[in-house]
């Protein structure tokens, strides 16, 4: 959730170097986040309430039953993407994510409410 709210505020995606994209306007950021949180995605998108574990370095995981990407930072402030293609590893990561306690995730309604409040109250919209 922190990443979505930060994106709304400044348009930056820390995992992607600034030079690779143009920072969207506030109105475009709102539209992007609305599309991300569209009701038809509610059953597929799960947003953690808190980080898992105690890591000093952020680790990003995108996983579906058919594909996975593990994104890790390097000491040089660059990111490395590892594509998870081996069936056993893919199944292990997917199983881990699928079996996390539901209490660890925002409900669709909670996520939507938090984002809507930020959209209404954010003083960042005056660019």
Nearest-integer average pLDDT: 83
Number of helices: 4
Give a count of the beta strands, DSSP E runs of length 2 or more.
3
What is the general shape?
globular
Layout of helices and strands, plus pairs?
Layout: H1 2-10, H2 26-36, E1 60-63, E2 68-73, E3 79-84, H3 87-98, H4 108-121
Antiparallel strand pairs: 1-2, 2-3
Helix pairs in contact: 1-2
Any overview of this molecule?
The protein is of the alpha+beta class and 127 residues long. Helix content is 36%, strand content 13%. It contains four helices and three strands. The chain has a three-stranded antiparallel beta sheet, covered by helices on one side. The longest helix has 14 residues, at 108-121. The radius of gyration is 16 Å and the shape is globular. The chain starts with a helix and ends in a 6-residue tail after the last helix. The model has no long low-confidence stretch (mean pLDDT 83).
What is the gist of this entry?
The protein contains four helices and three strands. It has 127 residues and is α+β, with helices and mostly antiparallel strands.
List keywords for this structure.
127 residues; three-stranded antiparallel sheet; 3 strands; alpha+beta
